[in-house]
Amino acid sequence: MNTMKLKVGAGLVAGSLSPLFAFAAVDTTDIVSTIGEAATAGAAIGVAVLSMHYGIKLYKWIKGAG
């Protein structure tokens, strides 16, 4: 009788966890590549903004020195 309860209990646990494993098969490669492309574009824009900011500061510093 104890082995029967153990088997039923194991079956119930496995059955209750099966919906969790159904979502594990979702393909996320498109999402990850889109986020990677957005990060690359964001980094390029950030570098351009910082370059302009510090370029202007450098120009003013050189102009003020002469």
TrEMBL record:
Q: Highest taxon of the source?
A: Bacteria
Give the stretches traversing the membrane.
38-56
Q: Which UniProt keywords apply?
A: Membrane, Signal, Transmembrane, Transmembrane helix
* Signal peptide extent: 1-24
The cross-references to InterPro entries, in alphabetical order and at most eight, read:
G8P
From the Swiss-Prot or TrEMBL record, give the protein name.
Answer: Uncharacterized protein
Q: Which organism is it from?
A: Aerosticca soli
Its lineage reads: Bacteria, Pseudomonadati, Pseudomonadota, Gammaproteobacteria, Lysobacterales
